[in-house]
Amino acid sequence: MVNYVKYFQKEDIAATCAMTDVKGDRSLRPSEQVDPDLYLRIVEKRDDGIVVRGAKAHTTAAVPSNEIIVMPTRALRDKDKDYAVAFAVPVDAEGLKFVARSTVPRERGKMDSPFRSRWGVTETVTIFDDVFVPMDRVFMCGEWEFAGSAAELFAIYHRHSYCGCKPGVSDVLMGIAALLAEYNNVEGASHIQSKLTDIVCTAEEIYACGIAGSVQGKPMGPGTYVPNITLVNIGKYIAGTHIYEEIYRVHDIAGGLTITCPSEKDYFHPELKNYLEKYLKGKADIPTEHRVRAFKLAEDLTAHGFAGWIMVASCHGGGSPEAQRITIYRGYDFNKRKEIAKCLAGIKKFEEFPEFEG
Ligand SMILES: Cc1cc2nc3c(=O)[nH]c(=O)nc-3n(C[C@H](O)[C@H](O)[C@H](O)COP(=O)(O)OP(=O)(O)OC[C@H]3O[C@@H](n4cnc5c(N)ncnc54)[C@H](O)[C@@H]3O)c2cc1C
Questions:
Q1: Nearest-CA residue for atom 32 of ligand 1
Q2: Spelled out in words, what is the top-level CATH class assigned to the domain 2-142?
Q3: Ligand 1: which atom is nearest the Cα of residue 17?
Q4: Which of 21, 199, 296, 332 could disulfide-pair with 39, CB 3.0 to 4.6 Å?
């Protein structure tokens, strides 16, 4: 593992993590599935390495990466030990196949789809068709006791990074909403200000959880830190559950042209341009084209294919909201809170409370 880290840093390679298995019947453990390949597993152990079979879902940025790092997606039991496997392989390893898709790309034009014509994301179904992994690239091989903590550790860092990146999405969403409020000249209306403030609160709550999670992080092993588990899970939980409301606020503030704005072909058509310049005008001192461009961005990011991606990615990326709830509940000290309630209710004396300071 340490050698691999050294190689990784020396070569400055890019890798993605394929953790989420396709999982088949969600109510069954890996070894209980009708088809044993629905979680990635070791099918052969040799002196020089292992052979693995299975498939991972939703692997982000696998295609443009140099390497794929694989690890178990959940806690395992003794019977599941063939599924306790972690390793790294280059993307061109024999038997490794990527079924890739990307986020609704569009041709670059003058005005339509300003975001999707420039940026996108790919995810893959990552298939391991009896892929050989040399032993020096195998990091877990049957040690099922560690699968749960490895998966949880990955999730903590992932959720922590969400606390940094997701507020960036909110910045874009509130930027669109604030701009269109200005162009429609409703930015002085109190309900518009309240709705913009709601988006700000969501963004800053998530960001604050990220910062607080870092500040309350603890050293873990040589040279590494782990952020506060509860706080970063709360940050990711807010991100995943509030995104729908954020997008709703943008729609509410922007107005219906978010989806009914004429195409650039019509807007720049010689016969139509003057009509559309005139009738799509908002606030008098704002060029119509600016307003139309802002609506195009709103449409691109909140009302078509990419909007769906943002919503589902926020909800499920880094684990579905229930995964965060479970982690938050399990790690939270409810007994301490019960003690507080007992003291306040007169069931227990304040002096008996462990953290009582007079
Ligand atoms: C855009 C995007 C990018 C992603 N990128 C990556 C990546 O790069 N690498 C990677 O490894 N993963 C990645 N993921 C995967 C992500 O972590 C999963 O989508 C997430 O963990 C949910 O798993 P799932 O999609 O299989 O949904 P499911 O697990 O099927 O969840 C659907 C619902 O069922 C519930 N559920 C599931 N199992 C049970 C159970 N046993 N009991 C009760 N309820 C249950 C869940 O809580 C949820 O409400 C990505 C996902 C998305 C959407």
A1: 320
A2: mainly beta
A3: 9
A4: 21
